[in-house]
Amino acid sequence: MALVQKRAPQGSARPAFVSVAPGFEPALVRELQEIGVQATEEPGGAAFTATAESLALVHRFSRIAGRVTVKIGAGGAGTLEELAQTARSMPWKDYIPAGQPVAVKATANKSRLHFTATIGKKVELAITDAMRGPRLSGPRPPREPAPVIVRVEGDRASFFLDASGELMHRRGWRLDSAKAPIRENLGAAILAVAEWEVDEPLVDPMCGSGTFAIEAAGIALGDPPGDQRSFAFLNWPSFPAKVWPGAPRSPRPKGIGVIVASDRDPGAVRATTENARRAGVAAHIKVLHRPFVELEPPARTGLVVMNPPYGRRIGEGDSSNAVFRHIGTVLRERWSGWRLAILIPDRALLRDLGIPVESALLFSNGGLKVGLFIGEVR
After folding, report:
1. What is the largest CA-CA distance in the chain?
2. Over the stretch 21-61, which tens digit does the pLDDT of each residue have?
3. What is the pTM of this model?
4. Is the CA virtual torsion 60, 29, 104, 174 positive or negative?
5. Hey, what's the torsion of the CAs at 166, 146, 236, 19, to 10 degrees?
């Protein structure tokens, strides 16, 4: 008689953590609350209670989140054998389909177990041992390894599963990139920190791959960023399949302001056009091939959001000082009355910009510390 694979009963709610670039934690918590997930701000992200419903909401609707990890359990890890015994006792069958490989990342702090590679291998073997049993009929298990994280602190180990799999900022539309692009979730977070509203005109005059404009259009249209991709937790045997399709869709706002993406580089214009098409928002973004000095404001007021070229992104014969002096001059001459959100890698460049702005936060972009500065052009 053939065995029919059934989903395990839905597990109890478990502690979870959603990561974000340091500095953007308050914006993340506000967003999670708006989509119906109660969260507590923590360094590098936010803690929440993982249920089937909350996991679906975070992954489907959060534009700011980076990755979600769920705590499976904890126990003794004074020795490798105790670690293995603790690992075998975890409810892996609720979260890993039979036959799916496992990839373990380990960290150790103040522990007699010093070698993280040895810890990871020991846990991997223990999970494989715990998963043994008859092979059941049903869908083939995923080929991608289930991402497991073990953190050893002293003589105890905590076990986590990566619920997201691939990082959440990868929406699936950005195949064409300009130099040093802003990640999609950071683009959305910057718009949130700048308090951009969907009916406010938005212009990115140095658009690169179009991240700010495309994220803004997605926000304005209420398009769930996680709709076009899959996540690791959707393969968990304990996850009820009906929850994901049943997750509510964000309401579409009635009024959407003009969104303009422009660049002097024809390659950037092509990248933005193609990315917007793949994201399904091309009809809502005006893409222009213009140098900033020739760009006309589409309204009397709005938000100019900019990630200007600096450092290695600047062409020969230019300098960061010259670039920011040019930006400041053009803004004062043509964009008076507009709000400004601009990324600046060095406070010394504020003098070249010549526009009163306030520091909103500091974060890392591509390994380089940059500041987000917000002000009004006068």
Report:
1. 80
2. 999 999 999 999 999 999 999 999 999 999 999 999 999 99
3. 0.88
4. positive
5. -40
